[in-house]
Amino acid sequence: MGMPAVHTDWTVDMLDALPDDGQRYEIIDGALYVTPAPSDVHQLVAGVFYRRIYDYLRGSGLAYALFSPADVRKGDRTRNRVQPDVFAVRFAAGRRPTYPYDLGDLLLVIEVQSPGNPLLDYQVKRKLYLSQGVPEYWIANAEARIVSRWRSVDDPGEVLARRIEWLPTGMATPLVIDLPALFAEALDTP
User: Fold this and answer.
1) What is the pLDDT of residues 25-62, one digit of tens each?
2) Are 103 and 74 in contact (CB under 8 A)?
3) Nearest 5°: phi and psi at 112?
4) What's the CATH class of domain 38-187?
5) Any idea where the domains of the chain sit in the sequence?
6) DSSP structure string for the chain
7) What is the mean pLDDT of the chain?
8) 58-106 pLDDT, tens per residue?
9) Are 52 and 110 a contacting pair, CB within 8 Å?
10) Letter string b/e over residues 97-110, b meaning 16 or more CB atoms within 10 A of that residue's CB
11) Taking phi first (over 0 means left), then psi (-120 to 50 degrees means alpha), and beta for anything else, what does residue 34 get?
């Protein structure tokens, strides 16, 4: 479950000292969030989203797609480290930005909802990503086969079941994803 630990002064160094036990550890403003290793359903859905974003951005010169584990930080880089499931990183002057990435380097973040941590994805991470200038934040719900999307902190969001479009500044045509087809590819294909 994505509950913060009682101790709220966690640092990246403390996080790095934890044993590798298969759990995902993230810190936001010093608060530790621990979630179980992702399920196969989570990974299958994230994988198909990654491939769609990767294919769309390949050769664009604008950005590239990544998936976790990969570190993204904000502001006080010693007290903030998250690992979005799938994300697009903007090129800086035609090159990859310095790793670990800053939240300001991201054009899109996609989290695949884990059943045990809706508060973390829908509230904590949504506020974090959007308040730090990430232009779009999506949460894919594999069980319901829907995607929730926000484009700013003040955006009430929308829930999409048929299709989702993404047109980052600098791209001539949008990426259009047929959501029933995406979820079927991820979950129904033997």
Assistant:
1) 888 888 888 888 888 999 999 999 999 999 999 999 99
2) yes
3) -95, 120
4) alpha beta
5) 38-187
6) --EEPS-----HHHHHHS---S-EEEEETTEEEEEPPPPHHHHHHHHHHHHHHHHHHTT-SSEEEEESS--EE-SSTTS-BB--SEEEEE-BTTBPPPSSEEGGGEEEEEEEPPTT-HHIIIIIIHHHHHHTT-SEEEEEETTTTEEEEESSTT---EEESSEEEE--TT-SS-EEEEHHHHHHHHHT--
7) 90
8) 999 999 999 988 889 887 777 888 989 999 999 988 889 988 899 999 9
9) no
10) eeeebbbebbbbbb
11) beta
Q: Which residues contact 83 (CB under 8 A, 6 or more apart)?
A: 24, 26, 68, 69, 70, 71, 72
- Cis link prior to 38 (omega < 30° from 0)? no
What are the backbone angles phi and psi of residue 118, rounded to the nearest 5°? -60, -35
Cis peptide bond upstream of 100, omega within 30: yes
Residues 6+ apart with CB under 8 A from 177: 52, 163, 164, 165, 166
Write out the two tokens for 131.
């308040």
C-alpha span between 61 and 76 (Å, rounded): 29
- Residue 102 to residue 116: CA distance in whole angstroms: 27
